[in-house]
Amino acid sequence: MRLHTIINEATMQMKPEIFKHLRTPAVLALDKATRNAGFEIRIVGGAVRDLVQGKDPKDIDMATDATPQKMMEILDAVGIRHEPTGLQHGTITAIIDGEPIEITTLRIDTNQDGRHADVQFTNDWRKDAERRDLTFNAMSMEMDGTLHDYFDGVDDLNNGHAKFVGNPDERMKEDYLRILRFFRFQGRLNAPTWDKDTMDAVRRNADGLEGISGERIWAEMEKILSNESSRADVLKRMDQTDVLEAIDAPNNRVGSLRNVMGTNPAAALSALINTVGGLEQLRNRWKFSTEVYETTKFCVEKRSIPFDETVAQRMLADPKIRAAHVFALAESRGRKDLVQKLKAWTPPEFPVNGSDLMAAGLKPGPNMGKALAQLRNEWEASGFKLNRNDLLRKL
Question: In CATH, what number does 1-159 get?
Answer without folding.
Answer: 3.30.460.10
